[in-house]
Structures are given as C-alpha cells and as structure tokens.
Inverse folding.
C-alpha cells in the first residue's frame, strides 16, 4: 500500500503542477458548454421530429398523406407511447402520432408543434386534424404540457462524457506510453514495485483527477446555467464513476504495449472520433440509420450518455438505467482483463 | 591467492547469453565480482555491455546462463539489494529532487535515511529544486541518490559520467569513491578509460558480445605494454636497426610516423642501456599506455 500511495501521490502532483495541462483540461469543456448554451438556447435541431406508434399508412393507400412525405420531417418510430410523450413534454420531439389509435399529440407550448399541427389542417393535407379526406375515422388531438429542455441541458452529459473520454484515454494511455518511451517505466521496473501496483496507482490517480475535473466543470457551469436535474445525484455519481473506470481501462488496453506517442495519438484518434460522432454527444441518435445505432452500442460513452441523460432529464431510477450500468461494468471488466494480460513494462 | 582464501564473489555470471532477433548482443560471458570492489565493464558502443548489465539487473530475461548473487540464483528480492543508475533515464516530472527521492524511498521496505543520501550525493544545494531544472552533474548526482535510496550492497552504474564536464566527472568520481569506502560493490560501465583506471579494481573488455580481456587494469597494461613506452625519433637509430636494438633491450619495438616506440618493463634500466649504446636521447618521450591503447591493441579499433 505504501508503494501504491507513493506512485499515486507523485502522479497527482505531476498533473496538478502542470498548469498548462490543468488549464486545458478545464477551459476547453467549459468553453464548449457555454458556447453551445449561447448558440442553441432552445432545441438544437432544425428539422421537425415526430414520434410514431404503429405502422404508417402505405403509400397510395386511402390513409396516405402528403404530410408523411414532406422533407425536413423526421419520423421516429416508438413501440409504446410513454417514451415519446415524455420527450414531447420536454420539447425533445415536436409531435406524436399514434396510428394504431388514430390519435396525435402536441405540446401546446411548443412552437414547432403548432406549425406541425397547421400542416395537418384539412385545407392543406389529407391526414388531418379533422380526419382523413377520403372517409376514415378522424385523428383525435391530444395535448401534453411541460417546459422545454434546453439544448445545453441535453448536451451537458455529452460534454462530461467527452471530458471523461479524453481525460482517461490521454491521462492513462498517453501518459503510460510516454513513461514507456522515455524510460520512466524502466526505472520503476528496476525497483520492487510490481506492475499491478504501478498500474493500480495510475488508475486511481487518474480516476481522482477526472472525477475532480468533471465535478469542477459541472458545478462551475451549473452556477450560471442551472442544469435540469430530475433524478438522483447519487445515481449520477455512480454512472460517472463507472464510466471513468471504463474509459481508464480502455486507455490501459491501448497503453499496454505501445512505445510510440505518435502511434498512441493515431490510435486515440481512431477510438475517440467515432465515439464522439456516433455516441449521441452532439445530436440524438433517434431516427438515425440502424447500422449507426448498432455501431454506437459498441462504445462505452453511448451507455454513459444514455444513462446520464435519463437521470438528469427524465429522472430515471436504477431500474431504468440498469442495462447501461451493466454494459459499462461488463466493458470495464473486459478492458481490465485485456490490459492485465497485455501489459508490459517495456 | 589460494582458492580457499579467495574473497567471496558477491556476483557471479556464468555463460550469459542474450539475443535480439539474430543478433547475439551478449554471447556467453562469464565473470565474478568481488565484494567491496569496483568492477568495470568496458567496450565500444554495441559491444553488449549495457545489455549485459541490464540482464544482470533483471530488467531483461537472459536466453540462457545463470546469475548468482551471494552464491544463490537471483530472486525477486534481488531488486531490494541492488541500486541502479541507468545510462539514460527519465523521471516523473514536476517533482522536486526531495520528492523524487521520497517517491523511490517508499518503493523499498527498508530505505536509507534521506539525510544520509543527501549528504552522500551532495544534494543539499538543489534538494528542493524541480528535477527538470538541474545541470548535467546535478542530475547525475540525483540519479545516484535514487540508486542509493535502498542502501544497496551492489550498485550498477551504466556510463554515469557520459556528457559531464571534467570538473563534474571528477566530483562524481569522488562520490563513487566515497560509496566504495562504505564497503559497497560497484559495477560500472564506461567509455572513459581514465575513469576505469581511476575507479576500477577489476575490468572486463567486451566486444561483439564477448569478453576479450579481463583482469586488473594495471596488470593488463603491464601484460600488454610493459611499464612504459619510450618514444625516440627513428633517426636516433641506425637505419633498420631499431627492431634489433629493441630486442637487445628486451623491449618490443614498433616504428610509426618517424618514431620508434619501445615497450619496456623497466624504464630506468632501458634508459641506461640506451645511453650506454650511444643512442642520442634528443626528442625522447616516456609515455604510459592506457586502457584505450589496450583496447586498440585488442580489437584493432578505438573506443568511441
């Protein structure tokens, strides 16, 4: 334990005394949050998003409507009403159409919902507020209410996720590769320090640093932006802790053998860019191609963002995010096992 | 010295082999190191000395051969008994010299008191300075301090004075002499022959992974060059007579660049003989050969 603590303390001192790195770690994510908060004070999307339940009418069928084929309308299928109505209440989608019951829902305080409803008017289109033009039963209007969720509320878990991603991968992966290349690892290998003691200290040091920075970013920006928090802080902390461990473990895997910082940089780009694009950091994956959604399931950050948004925006409890927690835990175990198997001092 | 009275070897290396791909960096070397001595491993770049020392330090596994510490095969606890100063090493940054020493101290079960290390390596003047802001000599002293944190019986120093100015080198030599005086055993690799002559009790010379000569420096120089080399202009001897007259003096003679070099085991006697033979002594010089000359003789190439 004495050896572990010595390496842990030394690594923390190295990080916190390196002011340029510390500032970079703090300033970039905070600037990102404020930048998006001012750029997108409301919702971030520009298209209209409509949740659907049941099969839409076939093309050319009596129930078909031009409305269903308009550009810039995105139809997102759901299996039950609960989720899309919740999202409608928070202005994350603009309308819900239930084809099985002949009902549609709008949020009366949503401007987009108002415009969409006008598009459905009988004077313009077939599938209408008053009912289909060629007979058929009328689609009944139903309303929900709720305040909009700002884009920044939706975006904040993504920023924290990116901070965790880069902080962990570069802070453990890059640092160990640098230590290996410049001989720090060789120097430690010449002592009685065991590999697991060294790696354990690096993991815990980085865990502490990333968690500290994440809390600082969140609380610092929250003072000004007052994020929506519908769920449990403890659960959010648990999700964050697991995500940090998972990313650190991933960093350990790619740091286990690489000797060159250039190669490490290339691999880091290979890992981080797809994660940032495909994990729903900047935009929702709802309505994206199935292949893209399937690919996103391979990345730990997807589960982190999903769970964090569910807690913060929807007030999800442990049961609702158990799947995400399970995925993060399983990935952490696999990454740690792979890192332990692959790790070499030199 | 009879075998029964021979000092106990603190370290024995037997038939050590280490290859990298098709290159045999260390090719079956064997030697023993006396406790309390300074043992030098000399050789040019690529001779295999750093590989050999790092295999002995258990940084790398040997392909074959054995390493015995106090008569026993090296085990995990070996690392607790040795100190290492690598040829080239980096440390965790943003730490002071004191914090760096404390970090390494905590990696050992029974570290030496910090004050003793600071005194032994003369670290007082920069003990609270950032470890990146040291001069070459100060950095080497700090690295020596790190190598001493566990109060090791056996200290490995891999080219510890490379790149230092003459003054810093001399200071470092004094530190090593002080460590030797405490009864520690030092294994030293070096490019500098004056360093080996000054510090080492025993040496081996390596080339292409082999040991090509071993022994005490003074004895090796006597064996290969005699006590001294007397250089005289070639014109001092009748044409073509220098080798014969050298042989008559018991001194092998070599002619090069207009000078005749006589390798003599007894300088006084040879000088008297030259005078009695009527050889004019104008332009004479008496030189002592060094280990660089020895290496040149053994391998046909200089140390780089």
């Amino acid at each position: 334990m004495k050896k572990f603590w010595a390496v842990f303390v030394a690594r923390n001192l190295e990080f916190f005394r390196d002011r340029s790195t510390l500032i970079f770690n703090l300033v970039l994510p905070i600037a990102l949050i404020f930048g998006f908060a001012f750029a997108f004070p409301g919702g971030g999307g520009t298209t209209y998003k409509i949740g659907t339940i049941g099969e839409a009418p076939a093309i050319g069928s009596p129930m078909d409507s031009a409305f269903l084929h308009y550009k810039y309308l995105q139809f997102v299928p759901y299996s039950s009403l609960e989720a899309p109505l919740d999202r409608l209440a928070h202005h994350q989608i603009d309308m819900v159409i239930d084809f099985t019951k002949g009902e549609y829902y709008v949020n009366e305080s949503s401007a987009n919902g108002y415009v969409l409803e006008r598009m459905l008017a009988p004077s313009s289109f077939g599938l209408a507020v008053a009912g289909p033009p060629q007979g058929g039963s009328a689609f009944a209007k139903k309303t929900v209410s709720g305040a909009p969720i700002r884009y920044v509320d939706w975006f904040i878990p993504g920023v924290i996720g990116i901070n965790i991603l880069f902080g962990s991968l570069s802070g453990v992966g890059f640092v160990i590769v640098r230590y290996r290349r410049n001989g720090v690892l060789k120097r430690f290998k010449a002592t009685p320090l065991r590999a697991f003691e060294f790696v354990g200290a690096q993991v815990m040091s980085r865990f502490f640093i990333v968690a500290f920075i994440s809390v600082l970013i969140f609380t610092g920006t929250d003072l000004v932006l007052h994020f929506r928090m519908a769920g449990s802080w403890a659960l959010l902390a648990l999700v964050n802790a697991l995500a940090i461990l998972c990313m650190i473990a991933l960093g350990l895997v790619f740091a286990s053998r690489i000797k060159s910082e250039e190669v490490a940089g290339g691999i880091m780009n290979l890992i981080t860019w797809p994660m940032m694009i495909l994990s729903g950091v900047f935009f929702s994956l709802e309505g994206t191609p199935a292949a893209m959604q399937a690919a996103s399931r391979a990345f730990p950050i997807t589960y982190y963002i999903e769970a964090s948004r569910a807690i913060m925006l929807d007030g999800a409890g442990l049961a609702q995010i158990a799947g995400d927690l399970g995925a993060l835990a399983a990935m952490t175990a696999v990454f740690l096992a792979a890192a332990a198997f692959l790790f070499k001092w030199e | 010295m009879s075998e029964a009275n021979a000092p106990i070897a603190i370290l024995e290396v037997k038939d050590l082999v280490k290859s990298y791909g098709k290159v045999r960096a260390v090719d079956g070397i064997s030697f023993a190191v006396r406790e309390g001595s300074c043992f030098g491993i000399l050789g040019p770049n690529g001779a295999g000395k750093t590989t050999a020392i790092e295999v002995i330090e258990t940084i790398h596994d040997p392909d074959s051969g054995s390493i015995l510490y106090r008569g026993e095969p090296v085990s995990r606890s070996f690392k607790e008994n040795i100190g290492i100063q690598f040829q080239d090493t980096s440390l965790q940054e943003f730490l002071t010299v004191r914090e760096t020493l404390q970090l390494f101290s905590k990696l050992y079960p029974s570290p030496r008191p910090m004050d003793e290390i600071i005194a032994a390596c003369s670290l007082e003047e920069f003990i609270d300075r950032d470890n990146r802001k040291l001069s070459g000599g100060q950095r080497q002293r700090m690295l020596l301090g790190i190598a001493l944190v566990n109060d090791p019986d056996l200290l490995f120093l891999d080219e510890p004075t490379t790149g230092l100015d003459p003054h810093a080198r001399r200071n470092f030599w004094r530190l090593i002499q002080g460590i030797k005086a405490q009864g520690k055993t030092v294994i030293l690799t070096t490019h500098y022959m004056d360093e080996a002559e000054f510090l080492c009790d025993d040496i081996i010379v390596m080339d292409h992974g082999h040991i090509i000569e071993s022994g005490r420096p003074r004895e090796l120089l006597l064996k290969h060059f005699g006590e001294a080399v007397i250089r005289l202009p070639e014109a001092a001897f009748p044409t073509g007579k220098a080798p014969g007259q050298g042989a008559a003096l018991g001194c092998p003679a070599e002619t090069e660049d207009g000078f005749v070099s006589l390798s003599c085991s007894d300088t006084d006697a040879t000088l008297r003989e030259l005078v009695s033979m009527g050889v004019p002594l104008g332009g004479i010089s008496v030189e002592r050969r060094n280990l660089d000359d020895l290496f040149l003789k053994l391998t046909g190439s200089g140390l780089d």
Summary: The interface with chain A takes residues 57, 59, 76-77, 79-80, 84, 86, 88-95, 99, 102-104, 106-109, 146 of chain B (CB under 8 Å).
